[in-house]
Design brief:
Shape: globular
CATH topology of one domain: Rossmann fold
Structural class: alpha/beta
Distance between the termini: 74 Å
Number of strands: 7
Strand content: 5-15%
CATH class of one domain: Alpha Beta
Radius of gyration: 27 Å
Mean pLDDT: 79
Low-confidence stretches: 49-56, 138-144, 159-200
CATH architecture of one domain: 3-Layer(aba) Sandwich
């Protein structure tokens, strides 16, 4: 009898456990269905609002954000292509690209641009100018089972809630500055570590530097460093005030001039930036780096005649300045002076043999000169110098594609994509997400465009927990297929991105047509 009771208890316990598991499973299914249905309903409402907006305004406004690969490039072709499709809608494309800009600067101007133009859609193709530390993703998912699990809306909701909890934990003071720290270079700790540590590091750095200023209100260096902390947090107005204070305390501080020039360029107040350069050069006529920066400034403005003399002056002041040789070589290459450009690149690499990007550019220069064997060797040299450099793999992949060696091209393209999926720029990722949040709040459609030749995967990975309301445009296959037929020079004027560059008219038309096709299919069901 006792044994029978034990058996019954075991059966009852198993039944209860089974029912609980089944109940959880059903709850998961219903929650998943609810999230998907809710997402569909919200998307339908947004579509209805967009169509109502078009009827009221008489046109569908699209604002394009990006750098020099956007400014004066594909936007006018996009407007032309869309209006040629006879949709019964007039499309107006607004070009807000700016050469040399960064995602932080784009984000800073975003609300003002949205208030001014009231777009129905925003297109971004940005991030190539976001220099800085690239850190590994915490996990690289390769398991098909895990990828399937991550596709569930329930998982994504749980992950977003967890990230939100983490952020709130930092806000309520879980991370507190260490009062025993010295008020000096220790503030630089925010450049390292995981995302959570970096966010905590901003708070630590701010506290340290504020304490330093409190102890010594005339410490110009502390104002400068605190300004940089705010700049990296996109608090640009506060940063600008601190840079001005640093310059007021130390009028000889070249770095403060640089920061204010950078701010002026981002705000498009170019005459103010030029005045700052002149003042800095008056104080530091022998500072070769000032001439380098002035050269970049004039290049961004398209004043190429001034650039050559300025770069030569930089080399005269400091003949070991490898970067000046590379910049002057780049200028000559753009002017078609290939042999002069080759000599300058060789000199720059001789002074700094570890410069991977210079090797890649020299490889492309050899290809343009028809020196194919040298080009191949130089690309391979770049890979030897830095086996984790995605751009080196991408460059030789394009080279092999042009040579008709498709198997080798695919092998190296896969290696480039793998490296790009392993590492990411945290500033770029954060700015993309902030931009999406702003657009969501304003009910503006977001079209996220990947650069020509590049795989869409790394861009999607930024939003892997929240891809809702984003339209992605993949430009990898159409450009690679086109280059197989006509070569890269038919579609790119240069290769500043190592595996892509500024487009020719033909390239911009191809880019515009692909973006238009995706928009018409995803938004207008055409």
């Amino acid at each position: 009898m006792q044994e029978d009771n034990k058996t019954k208890l075991k059966v009852a316990l198993k039944t209860r456990i089974t029912l609980v598991i089944f109940g959880l499973f059903l709850s998961f299914i219903f929650l998943e269905m609810g999230l998907r249905i809710g997402g569909f309903v919200l998307l339908s409402i947004q579509e209805y609002r967009n169509r109502q907006s078009i009827q009221q305004k008489g046109s569908y406004r699209i604002m394009c954000l990006g750098e020099s690969t956007t400014q004066g490039q594909y936007p006018p072709f996009l407007e032309e292509v869309l209006n040629q499709r006879n949709m019964g809608i007039r499309f107006s494309v607004i070009d807000k690209g700016l050469g040399g800009t960064t995602t932080s600067a784009i984000l800073e101007r975003l609300n003002a641009d949205l208030d001014k133009y009231h777009p129905d859609m925003v297109i971004t193709m940005m991030g190539i100018n976001d220099w800085g530390e690239h850190i590994p993703y915490e996990t690289v998912v390769t398991s098909k089972g895990m990828l399937f699990f991550r596709s569930f809306r329930t998982y994504k909701l749980a992950r977003i809630l967890w990230l939100h909890i983490q952020a709130k934990t930092k806000e309520i003071g879980l991370y507190k500055p260490n009062e025993d720290k010295q008020y000096s270079k220790e503030a630089e700790t925010f450049f390292t570590g995981s995302r959570a540590k970096r966010d905590a590091g901003f708070n630590v750095s701010e506290a340290i530097l504020k304490k330093a200023i409190e102890k010594n209100p005339k410490d110009a260096g502390a104002y400068l460093e605190l300004g940089r902390v705010y700049r990296d947090q996109n608090k640009f107005s506060q940063a600008e005030d601190l840079f001005k204070k640093a310059l007021e305390l130390n009028p000889q501080d070249v770095n403060a001039y640089f920061e204010l020039v950078r701010r002026s360029q981002d705000q498009k107040t170019f005459s103010q930036a030029e005045d700052l350069f002149k003042k800095a050069l008056e104080l530091h006529p022998e500072n070769y780096y000032l001439y380098m920066a002035l050269g970049w400034f004039y290049r961004d403005r398209g004043e190429f005649l001034q650039v050559e003399g300025i770069l030569k002056k930089a080399i005269e002041l400091y003949p070991e300045n490898y970067y000046a040789y590379l910049e002057l070589g780049r200028l000559y290459r753009e002017q078609g002076k290939l042999s002069q450009a080759e000599g300058l690149f060789k000199k720059g690499i001789e002074l700094h043999p570890e410069n991977v990007r210079a090797c890649i550019t020299l490889g492309w220069l050899y290809r343009e000169e028809g020196k194919l064997s040298l080009a191949e060797d130089t690309f391979k040299k770049a890979i030897e110098l830095s086996p984790n450099e995605d751009d080196a793999y991408a460059a030789i992949s394009i080279f092999y594609e042009e040579m008709g060696k498709s198997a080798l091209a695919k092998e190296y393209a896969d290696k480039a994509n793998l490296e790009r999926l392993r590492y990411y720029n945290p500033v770029k990722a954060v700015n993309y997400r902030k931009l999406k949040d702003i657009l969501n709040k304003r009910d503006i459609r977001f079209v996220c465009v990947q650069y020509p030749m590049r795989n869409i995967g790394p861009l999607k990975k930024i939003f892997e927990d929240d891809e809702k309301n984003i339209i992605f445009v993949d430009n990898e296959k159409i450009f690679k297929d086109a280059i197989k037929i006509s070569g890269s020079t038919a579609y790119f004027k240069d290769m500043v991105g190592r595996d892509f560059g500024h487009c020719t008219e033909k390239g911009n038309r191809l880019l515009a047509e692909n973006i238009a096709n995706v928009i018409l299919k995803e938004v207008f069901d055409k």
